[in-house]
Specification:
- This protein is α+β, with helices and mostly antiparallel strands.
- It has 9 helices and 4 strands, in the order ββαααααααααββ.
- The protein folds into 2 domains: 80 residues, no CATH class; 202 residues, Vanadium-containing Chloroperoxidase, domain 1 (Up-down Bundle), CATH 1.20.144.
- The protein starts with a strand and ends with a strand.
- The N terminus is likely disordered.
C-alpha cells in the first residue's frame, strides 16, 4: 500500500493485491449482493502488500493518452509561459513605431547576414528542414528500445509530432488565405503569417520537450536547447532578408508554433491529475489494482 500527497489538494492511495485473493464466485457480481463485493475489495486493499511501483509526483497513474485534465494543464502552462508573451510584447513597439515596412525593406535590400536575397531564401528552406530533421533525430534517440521500454511511448510522441505539425500548417495556411497580406517583395499576398517560421518553431518546441525527458548533463541540455532556439530565429531572419515577410509575420509564426507544440505535447504526454474524487480499478495479468484520489 502506498499513500502519497502529490500536491496541496490531492492525496493518492494506490494498492494492489493478487487476483487469487478474490473468490471466483464474485464473477459475475450478483446485483442482489453488491455490498459483499465492496467489502471484499476494501478488506483486500487494507491487508494487501505494498505495490512494487511508487507513484510519480504530481501524477495519478493512468493509461497514456489525451485527457481533459492534461489539456487544461497544458493550456494553462502555455498561456503562463513568459516566452510566449515576450514575443507578443516585442511586436508592439514595431507596430506602434510604424517602421515595420522600413525594417523589412532594409533587410531585403542590404542582406547583412546572408549576402543576397536568393541565398537568404535558400537558407530559410535549409534551416526549416534542419529543424524538421532534428525533431526526427531526437524522436529516434528518445524512443530507442531500452529497459522498461513501451511501444506506447514512440506512438504517442509520433502522434504529438504529427498533430502539432498538421495543426500549425493548417492554421498558417488558413491565415495566409484569410488575411491576404502582400509580401514585402510583392510576389503574392500570403505574407501573414510565416509558414517557415511556424514550422521551425513547432518542430523545435517539440524537440525541446523531448530533450527535457532525456538524460543529458545540464550543460549539454542548455547547449541543445539554445541551438534549437537559434534555428527558429535564424529561419525567421532568413525569411526577412528574402523579402517574404514583415517582422510581425515572423513573430506571429514563432508564437503559433510554440503555442501549438506546447499544448499538443502537454495534452498527450503531460502529467495526469484527476479533477474530482475518483476510484479506478485496473486489471492486469498479474494483479488487480485499486487506485483512488480524494480532492478537498
Amino acid at each position: 500500500m502506498v499513500i502519497a500527497n502529490n500536491n496541496e489538494n490531492w492525496f493518492i492511495l494506490r494498492c494492489s493485491f493478487p487476483e487469487s485473493l478474490l473468490s471466483r464466485k464474485l464473477y459475475p457480481v450478483k446485483r442482489k449482493k453488491p455490498l459483499v463485493f465492496v467489502v471484499v475489495l476494501c478488506a483486500a486493499m487494507l491487508f494487501s502488500g505494498c505495490s512494487r511501483a511508487m507513484l510519480v509526483p504530481n501524477t495519478l497513474e493512468n493509461p497514456s493518452g489525451p485527457t481533459s485534465s492534461r489539456f487544461k494543464n497544458a493550456l494553462r502552462e502555455t498561456l503562463y509561459d513568459p516566452s510566449l508573451w515576450l514575443g507578443a510584447v516585442s511586436a508592439a513597439p514595431i507596430v506602434a513605431s510604424g517602421e515595420e515596412r522600413s525594417i523589412s525593406r532594409w533587410a531585403y535590400e542590404t542582406n547583412p547576414v546572408f549576402g543576397s536575397v536568393q541565398r537568404a531564401e535558400n537558407f530559410s528552406y535549409y534551416l526549416r528542414n534542419a529543424s524538421m530533421g532534428s525533431t526526427a533525430l531526437i524522436y529516434l534517440l528518445r524512443n530507442l528500445p531500452r529497459e522498461e521500454w513501451s511501444i506506447e511511448d514512440p506512438l504517442i510522441n509520433a502522434g504529438a509530432i504529427a498533430t502539432s505539425t498538421a495543426l500549425t500548417t493548417g492554421t498558417a495556411f488558413s491565415l495566409k488565405h484569410t488575411t491576404r497580406r502582400l509580401r514585402p517583395d510583392s510576389s503574392d499576398s500570403h505574407s501573414f503569417l510565416s509558414g517557415h517560421t511556424s514550422i521551425a518553431s513547432v518542430c523545435n518546441t517539440l524537440s525541446s520537450k523531448m530533450i527535457a525527458g532525456m538524460s543529458f548533463p545540464k550543460t549539454h541540455r542548455v547547449f541543445y536547447l539554445s541551438g534549437l532556439s537559434f534555428m527558429t530565429a535564424a529561419t525567421a531572419w532568413a525569411r526577412l532578408e528574402a523579402g517574404k515577410h514583415f517582422p510581425t509575420d515572423l513573430i506571429a509564426g514563432a508564437i503559433l508554433g510554440t503555442f501549438v507544440g506546447n499544448v499538443v505535447y502537454g495534452t498527450l504526454m503531460g502529467p495526469y491529475q484527476p479533477e474530482k474524487s475518483r476510484i479506478d480499478i485496473h486489471f492486469t495479468p498479474e494483479m488487480i489494482e485499486m487506485r483512488f484520489a480524494v480532492g478537498f
